[in-house]
């Protein structure tokens, strides 16, 4: 009976939260400089999650969340080693301080992660087969039971990290992601929100990070993907590979 009660509570969270609680990464800042709303980011019109870790829609969204048209053909220049800020909001309309689910509903707790993949052409349509490396992650802090998403909300949707200083110059996709775990007790249930930004990395070095594939990097049985977060956790295992550092 206990698990039935937990499931009912979870169902209430899903029903109460899902229609009004999603989010889109829609603006970027390079060393603090705003690059403009939706410029250089493959944003969808609909803000819903991907839940199938085997889907190609896990790479750069799309599919059930149709891309906003026209897709940006901008490629944003970013010096290797730069400070990079990604900004999320509930809908593609941007910040809405009167919306309690902006930038994302507080129920949507989970980690925030960033990957990069080198590409021939950052505006190329096909994103399958790319080799991704993780450059940053913010998971769970056991001492106060807070999540990357809690910090994202406290920063009004902004997440700041550093682009590795040693990667090769050239064109990249930057895949920035939230994994919301409010309904993750069974798989499918975790909600994956991600968009890809189109970057030209300048400067840098000659590092060749170890890489993973999407889909492939995540499994429905990963302890960070199928998990009951409605309990006191002593730790949390962020999905995917270790973070690359120079
Ligand atoms: C890059 O890809 C875009 C979209 O497919 C295409 O329009 C453009 O011509 C390509 N650029 C180069 C240099 O190949
Ligand atoms: Cu949602």
Automatic annotation (TrEMBL):
InterPro entries (UniProt xref): AA9, AA9_LPMO
Subcellular localization, as worded in the UniProt entry: Secreted
Annotated Auxiliary Activity family 9 catalytic domain residues: 22-235
Main subcellular location: secreted
Its EC number(s): 1.14.99.56
Signal sequence residues: 1-21
GO cellular component, one term: extracellular region
Short name of any one Pfam family annotated for the protein: AA9
Keywords per UniProt: Carbohydrate metabolism, Cellulose degradation, Copper, Disulfide bond, Metal-binding, Monooxygenase, Oxidoreductase, Polysaccharide degradation, Secreted, Signal
Biological process according to GO: cellulose catabolic process
Molecular function GO labels: cellulase activity; cellulose binding; metal ion binding; monooxygenase activity
Record keyword Chloroplast present: no
Catalytic activity entry: [(1->4)-beta-D-glucosyl]n+m + reduced acceptor + O2 = 4-dehydro-beta-D-glucosyl-[(1->4)-beta-D-glucosyl]n-1 + [(1->4)-beta-D-glucosyl]m + acceptor + H2O
Function: Lytic polysaccharide monooxygenase (LMPO) that depolymerizes crystalline and amorphous polysaccharides via the oxidation of scissile alpha- or beta-(1-4)-glycosidic bonds, yielding C1 and/or C4 oxidation products. Catalysis by LPMOs requires the reduction of the active-site copper from Cu(II) to Cu(I) by a reducing agent and H(2)O(2) or O(2) as a cosubstrate.
Domain notes: Has a modular structure: an endo-beta-1,4-glucanase catalytic module at the N-terminus, a linker rich in serines and threonines, and a C-terminal carbohydrate-binding module (CBM).
Stated name of the protein: AA9 family lytic polysaccharide monooxygenase
Organism for this UniProt entry: Dentipellis fragilis
């Amino acid at each position: 009976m206990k698990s039935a009660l937990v499931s009912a509570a979870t169902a209430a969270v899903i029903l109460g939260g899902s229609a009004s609680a999603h989010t889109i990464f829609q603006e970027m800042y390079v060393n603090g400089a705003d690059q403009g709303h939706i410029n250089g980011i493959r944003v969808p019109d609909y803000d819903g999650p991907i839940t199938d870790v085997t889907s190609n829609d896990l790479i750069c969204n799309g599919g059930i969340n149709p891309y906003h048209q026209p897709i940006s053909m901008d490629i944003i220049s970013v010096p290797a080693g730069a400070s990079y800020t990604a900004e999320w909001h509930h809908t593609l309309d941007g910040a809405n301080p009167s919306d309690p689910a902006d930038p994302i509903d507080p129920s949507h707790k989970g980690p925030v992660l960033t990957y990069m993949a080198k590409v021939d052409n950052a505006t190329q349509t096909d994103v399958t087969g790319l080799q991704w490396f993780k450059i940053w992650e913010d998971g769970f802090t056991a001492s106060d039971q807070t999540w990357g998403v809690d910090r994202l909300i406290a920063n009004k949707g902004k997440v700041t990290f550093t682009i590795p200083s040693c990667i090769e110059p050239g064109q990249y996709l930057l895949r920035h992601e939230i994994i919301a775990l409010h309904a993750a007790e069974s798989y499918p249930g975790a909600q994956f929100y991600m968009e890809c930004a189109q970057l030209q990395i300048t400067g840098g070095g000659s590092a060749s990070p170890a890489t993973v594939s999407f889909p492939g990097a995540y499994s429905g049985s990963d302890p960070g993907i199928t998990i009951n977060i409605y309990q006191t956790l002593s730790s949390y295992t962020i999905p995917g590979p270790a973070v690359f550092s120079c």
